[in-house]
Every structure is written in structure tokens, then in C-alpha cells.
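Field: COMPLEX_INPUT
Field: COMPONENT_COUNT = three
Field: RESIDUE_TOTAL = 978
Field: MODE = joint
Values follow.
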Amino acid sequence: MDIQKKQLLEFYQQMVTIRIFESRVCELFAAGQIPGFVHSSLGQEAIAAGVMACVEKDDKVGLHHRSHGEMIAKGADMNKMMAELFGKATGTCKGKGGSMHIADMDLGILGANGILGAGYAIATGAAFACQYNETKDIALCLFGDGQSNRGPFHESLNVAALWKLPIVFICENNGFGLSNPVKEHLATDCVSDRAAAYGIPGVTVDGNDVLAVYETTLEAVDRARKGNGPSLLEFTTWRWHGHFEGDPAVYKDAQEQEEWLKKDPIPRFAKQLLEQKNATQAELDEMQAKGEALVDAAVKFAEESPWPDVSELFTDVYDRQM
Amino acid sequence: MQMTYAEAIRDAMRVELKRDPKVYLAGEDIGVFGGCFGVTAGLLDEFGPKRIVDTPISENFIVGHAVGSSACGLRPIVEIMFNDFIAVCFDEMCNQAAKVRYMFGGKADVGMVLRMPIGAGIGAAAQHSQSLEGLLTHIPGLISVIPSTPADAKGLLISAIRDDNPVIFYEHKQMYGMPGEVPEGDYTIPIGKADIKREGSDVTIVTWSWMVQKSLAAAEKLAAEGINAEVLDPRTLIPLDKEAILKSVAKTGKLVIVHEEVKTSGFGGEIAAIVSEEGFDYLDAPIKRVAAPDTPIPFSPALEQAYIPSEEKIIEAVKALF
Amino acid sequence: MVSVGIIANPASGKDIRRLVAHSITFNNQEKVNIVQRAILGLNSVGVEELIYMPDYYNIVPRAMACMPGDYKLNIKVIQADMVMNGIQEDSADAARLMRECHTGCIITLGGDGTNRMVAKTCGDVPVLPISTGTNNVFPRMLEGTGAGMAAGVVARGLVNGSKSIQKNKKLKILKEGTLVDIALIDAVVLKDIFIGSRAIWDAERIKQVVVTRGEPDSIGISAIAGNLEPIGTLDEYGMAIEIGQGGDITIMAPIAPGLIRPVPIRNYRLLNLGEEVKVSNGPGVIALDGEREIEVGENDEYFIQLTLDGPNVVNVRETLREAVQKGYSRMGNL
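Field: COMPLEX_OUTPUT
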């Protein structure tokens, strides 16, 4: 497949921006500036960048709660995102959602979800709406290997396959369901094997290779858009940090962690760009600097934003005051 | 015109299916089979399989997909075959439907209706007979509608379908065949308005669903004994028409609450607390509750009849205040 | 000590061709079942030791764990002493180790890609390839039981006929005279610039094809050769094809499962053993046995050479026929 240079550079920009954003979020959390829970997606940037390049603004996306990267790659405003993580009034959700429940309906983002496994049916419902409305829009449903064990996985994949809904189920297999390594929580180890149960394509691809992620997702999205039904994609990757910030991840094997850090998707892609002369080192540096500047601005915006007024506690429970 | 409770519900859905192409029905066996209690009979023939969608036995999916499809602009009316099954899909209502608007900073309308039959008396025992209307009133973000007559059922259901919030619509199995006068065509009753089903001066009976019918019968017998009871049907538990209740209690000075839910943590406790807090001075007797005992619902007809609050128990409770 | 190796690739049969073609998902439990039957086959013909490649799915240990309790297995099952990295080079590492341990046969479960890795290091140790991949030409769809029995008699040295164990051709990929990689069936030069999801399914992206063999019913790029002029395993020649407009022929070929596509042939020629083909100028990608592997830069110079030093491959039917002929199927003769 041909990929324009512009798209290749866009992948790189997205990945470094997400890396910088997530790194900064971890620092701010450790410093006590971000309250609550933060689940970092460090190491998984290639999936966010590769997947979101395949969808349009009106396509719907259901997320899990390690999803800052996907939000950024779908085009969410990073200033508002950072403010949301801080709990500020200017946040994407007025500071009412936070990291685990961040959403942006204007971009078709149906929310990160604090309840792992709740997103399947919601995203499938969105795909139902796309089919019902006879638009060419599709839905993506992202989830982790751990939550692939929830019962609703089966209900939604069964119905999506039965009704040929325009949806792509995407598993980010990052090796762990909280502290449990895949071999201790998945009977079949490979999530994509389950596609056979629903008679849909199941594919496992290197999730640290942004081009492989992109190419695979593009085909699955195309299949969904043409009305040929859902697919189950599995992108293998590695969660660099603990389940949440502050989790010392004592359950991780040090050698395995070391091996995976070597598979960092960003330098790997940079090398490819340089070797194929699709980018110069100066261009890469420039993208890095741009990412830094965007995240600096986002932090500044969040820090300077006001706290929500206490009256906001009572709004948005219903569409009107009850 | 004369219609049964079930026909009135069907008529409301028909009116809305005709008026708004975004309205559709989804649930188990609602198509060819016409619903377990025949409520949706004939709608498949009239509106076709796109609008009347039979689903697999997948309650997580049924309710969860409605959150997604309504957030994307559709107007789903989903049916769970028995109220008891809410336990299977509690997350979808409690953590998803109820909270999406708030978590997303007001950016999502979850304009869905969840229909569920409640009630004992048909020998269906512990898992197909419960009245759990109090359960979800504890979750802010949900509306609870619980009609006691065919006309109320139609008018409130049309309002529920047009509401931009998730509405739970409780239908009592015992009343499906009950006839009554129902206005034709487009007929709405505002959500949150109580209805005085019988005017009286000596005691207020606050009650809903099938217990309204039992309380009305009890009131007639009490009248023969010189006690003039006012029967007030709040019709919606959330939002609750507190003013109407307080106004009635101010008039009569006595309050009996009747519901088919079990007594402990039933919604009657909430009403008693409200009247104690805000209408204590109106009371000249303790508040009485008539409710099902704190037991599972037994199978044997002999035991089941003892379980359901009866006219006699209502009469007894009222008389105890004089 | 009569020893057999098993290399079962947990990643085979899961690539993008399930989306872009009509391949099935080959689930890992099925591989466990095949291995279980193969072990019973090995045990039945008196193989004493099985060395297996460790993998993240634990295919062999799972097969052993679900072995019925009343089977009295004499075979010792040992994990190869190697580091598992979860990458395709694991298969090459395992095969090297098995060769060094003097195993008498290596059973592989995977596709053409898996066997390519094994062929790099297995030397003269006979290979018995079972297909669990996508569009396989090198491995066959085989029942595990017979495969185990055949591998066993080969490992014991009871069978060695030229029909039973066949020397295969291969392709060497040379960069400035140095061997950089090999292919067992086909090397395909593509217009792509990156490896990405590895598979090939778009005929329009193919520039050049070199094959060791190809049959009309092969699935994959070698089917292009098979539909021009079939070439068998034992034929001492291969084929080089240039794809594109400007020739007289367009053939139909199943280039992936269910994808039968017109392929315009600019020209083609048979290739003798030892002959080299120059890879057309980059940028491009060379795919080996169905997987995009080598990114070719603008100024890189690559050659593809046909040779006869590929792996020795066990033909299950011929091997067991030879065993029957020699009387080994009669009780007491093994």
C-alpha cells in the first residue's frame, strides 16, 4: 500500500505528542497536581496513532480507561483534556469525568469507561445507529486483554456479527489485566482466536509497528464501511508502567520488561523514516519540539484554569433541573 | 376510547413509531412472538424488522446498546422481559445510562426508555415476580415512571419516549388486561406530576402501580365505615411530586404508603422520610407503610397471596390511625 | 537416544489475510490437538525423547496436560534450553538447537514463514511440516497421528528412501554477494515501501516473482508460476517472472485464499539451479514465502539465486508406505 509522506510524518507527530503528554501526566500525578487515578498508555502509542488515522470525524469510538492516546489521535483538544485531568472547569467534560471517564461527543468519542467491558455494548449500539441511519459511519470499540474476559464481550460480538454491524473490535493486548499476565487470565491466550466463534475475521498484529496497525485497521474499517460486518483485531504491545500510576508493578518480570522496552515503537519508526529518507533528523526534532510545546501549553492552560463553581455539582444530572 | 393497559402501551409506541423515524423497539421476543405478555403484538407487521428488533438473550447488550444508540441520536425503547432481570444488566443502567450525561459534562443525551414488567400474582415465584422500582431510584440520572391506569400508561410512555433522559417504565403484569378510557392519538402526561385518583379528607394513601387499584377498592370499603381516604398516585417516583404529597398530607393529617415492593429500603421509606422532614407539623398520627414482607416471592399460590399486600391490610393500616 | 523435535508457532494463521482474503483463523487450541496426536504417534513407534520449542501459548505442555491418564507414555518430553522472545527467530533458534542435539526429525506446525525460519538452521535434519498457516505450499494439511508415526520412523533411521525424504530447492537472497535471507517457495518484489502487516494480497503491487516451484492449485504467489507452467518439488529448475503490462499473457491465479486475480505477465523464464536474478531497483520490499521481509532502498543491489540445498522434507505417505514394506507395521517388528 502507498502511504503519503504527510501521513507517515503525522504518525510520528501523534506518537511523540502522546508520549510527551502521557509522560507529563505521570509527572504531574506524582507531584500531586492530578487527582484520582491515572492509567498510563506509555508504550502503546503506535496503536492510538495507527488506529485513529483510519477513521473520520463522524465515526464513533468507544474506549477503555487507558485511552488518552486515542483521544489525542482522534483530534481531541489537549488543553481541555489536560484541564479535565486536573478537574478544572475548562475540561473536556467540565471536570466531571476525569481521566477514567473522559469523552468528547463532538468527535464521536463515546467515552473512556471506568467499567471495563461496559464499552462493548455502547460502541455496538453506536454501530447500530450508524447502520440504522444508513450513513457510511462506523464504530470502533477498543479494549484491553483483561476486559476481553467480561461477559458482555460475547453478547456484543455475537450481535454485531449476527446483524453485520459496522464496527471494528480492537484489543490492545498489553500483556496484563491489572496484575495478571495474559497466560494467567486468558484460557486461549490469543484474543483474536475468539473471532472464530462469531464467524468474523480475527487478526493478531504487532501493535508496536504503527504501519502494521494502520494497514490492518484500514482494511477492517473498509470492511465495516462496505457493510461486510465486524472484525476482531488484536494488537500486541506492552504496558510500560503499572496498571495505574503508583502501582509499583512488582508482578512484572524485569527481563521481560527490558526486552519490551527495546521494542519501543517510536525510535523504531524514526529509524524507518530516516532510512527510507521520508524524514530528516531535523524534521523529527521539530516534531518532538512541537509536541513539547503543545503539552507545555496544555499544562499551562490547565494550571491557569479555574475550578468549577460548586453549582456545577447539580447540573447535567438530567437535561433539566428536576 | 376503551383500551386495556397493554393496548394503551402499544398505542403509545405506535404513535411514536409513526411520528419519529428515530424511534425503534428492541428486546427479546418482541417481534413475531409479540412480547412475553403480548404488548408488542402486531408491531412487527406494521413497522417491519428495522424498527421492531428482536434480540438474542443478551440483557447487557440490549440495555448497553441503547445507551450507545441514543447517545448517537436514536430513540430506543428497549424491553427487559421481567424486572427481575435488571440484576443481569444493572451496570448498563447504574454506571452507564445514569451517568453518561454527567460524566461527559452535559454533552450527551441518553434518550432511551427501558420497559420492564413488575409484580407478583401469576405464580412466577422469586425470579420473575419482583417489584424493584425502588432499586434504581437510588441512582441519580435515571427517571422512574410507574403508571397505574391505561390512560396514564399511554400518556406517560409518550412523554418518556420524548424525554432526553434515560427513563425506566414499570408495567404491572396484573394490569395488562385491565380496561380503561384512553385518549386517542397524541396524548402526553407530564413526567413528575402526581394524580389524585380519589379525593378524600381523612387520610392520604400514597401508592402506585397495581396497589393504586387495591387502595381504591380499600378506600370504597373505608368510606362505608366513614373514613374518607384520598388516594394519591405519584405516577413517577423520580422525579417525585413532593408538593402534591405534602399538600395532601397537610389536608388529611395522616399518611399511609402502600407498595408491592418489600418494605425494607422500599421507596415508601423515602416518602415517609420526606414527609417527616418537610411535613412533620401536618401529621397527627405516625406514618404507616403497607408493603410486601422481606422475603423472596414464594411459588405456592397459598403463600404468594399472603405475600402480596391486600385490601384488608390496607384497611387495617388506615384504621389503626383512627 | 532417538529424539524428535517439535516447533509449533503460536502466531501462525492469524495475519491480515483473514481480513483481506478468506483465510480462517487457525486457533491455537487446534495446534495443541495436532501436537497431542503427533506425540501419541511418536510414542507408538518408539521415539524416546521429544524436544520442543517453548512458546507463549505453551502448545506442547498443554498437549501433554490434556493427554488421557490411561496412556502410558514412554517418550520423555523436554523443553529446548533457549530464550523465548516471541519473535519468528525463535523458530530458527530452536531448529539450530535441535540439530545440535542430534534430533532425527523436526516436526513443524506453522506456515511457509515458520518453515523458512526452520530451514535456515536445521541443516540436514529432515523436516516434517504440518500446515497451520494461511496459504501454504511448503507444509501440507496433515493429520497429526500419521505425521508423528512418520517422523518417528525417520528419526529411528528405519526409513530413508528417496521418495520418503526429499531434498528441496530454495532461494538465496544476496546483497552485494552476501547471503541475507532465504525463501523456500517464493521471493516477491513489491512496490511497497514498508513491511507493515507483512502479508501480500494485492496483485497490482507485485513487480517481480522468483519461485522454486508452483502448482496451479497452490495458494499464494507461487500459483502465478503454477498457472504459467507448473514446476514440481523435484524439478531441477525454478522460474523468474516480471509482472506488469506489456506482455502477451494475463493469467488467473489464486494469490491468496479465495482471491483469484488476473495477473498480467510482462515476461517469464525458467531458472536453472545456481542462476541469479537481479532484483529491480528500489525503493521496494522483498517478500519471502508470503511475508514482507526486506525493505530495499533506492541504491541497494539484491540478487535472488536458485539452489538445491534446501531442507530434507519427509513425505508422510511415502515414509509410512516404506515402513509397511519393510514390515514395521507388524507387531513386534519395531
